[in-house]
Amino acid sequence: MASAPITARPERTARLPWVFVYGSLKRGQYNQHVLQGARFAAVARSVLAWRLVALRRYPALVRAPGPSPVTGELWDVPDGMMTMLDRFEEVPDLYARHEIEVECLESDEEGGLAAGARLMAQAYFMPAALAAAGRDLPAGTWPQQD
């Protein structure tokens, strides 16, 4: 089965990335206000299976193989917001930002994304040593679905 092509809007530059969020920045979570000014694009999941752990109040993505892809949200961020997000995520002390491939799980008429579209997005990863006290979330979803 052929995979969907990686898509990106032509006007995007390295300064205007997509951001993949999987925890407290998602809609309905307690830090969603941090993304004020950004545009929700789609529910998405990582193409690769990464390790996702639950810490006391939030999850952490670890750059290590996990049992399943991680489900989250894809956001279109305006110019200048990445610097603010890096400060919020305490880069480089608590998290590091890396580019990953994600797949849209629903269509987005406004943004031109279709379900199944794959693209590159920025995601925040915690070093394994800092996430060691976390509880694994094998389903790749936070908050954990019962």
UniProtKB/TrEMBL annotation:
<dbReference type="GO" id="GO:0005829">
    <property type="term" value="C:cytosol"/>
</dbReference>
<feature type="active site" description="Proton acceptor">
    <location>
        <position position="89"/>
    </location>
</feature>
<feature type="domain" description="Gamma-glutamylcyclotransferase AIG2-like">
    <location>
        <begin position="19"/>
        <end position="142"/>
    </location>
</feature>
<dbReference type="GO" id="GO:0061929">
    <property type="term" value="F:gamma-glutamylaminecyclotransferase activity"/>
</dbReference>
<dbReference type="InterPro" id="IPR013024">
    <property type="entry name" value="GGCT-like"/>
</dbReference>
<dbReference type="InterPro" id="IPR036568">
    <property type="entry name" value="GGCT-like_sf"/>
</dbReference>
<protein>
    <recommendedName>
        <fullName>Gamma-glutamylcyclotransferase family protein</fullName>
    </recommendedName>
</protein>
<dbReference type="InterPro" id="IPR009288">
    <property type="entry name" value="AIG2-like_dom"/>
</dbReference>
<dbReference type="Pfam" id="PF06094">
    <property type="entry name" value="GGACT"/>
</dbReference>
<dbReference type="InterPro" id="IPR039126">
    <property type="entry name" value="GGACT"/>
</dbReference>
<comment type="similarity">
    <text>Belongs to the gamma-glutamylcyclotransferase family.</text>
</comment>
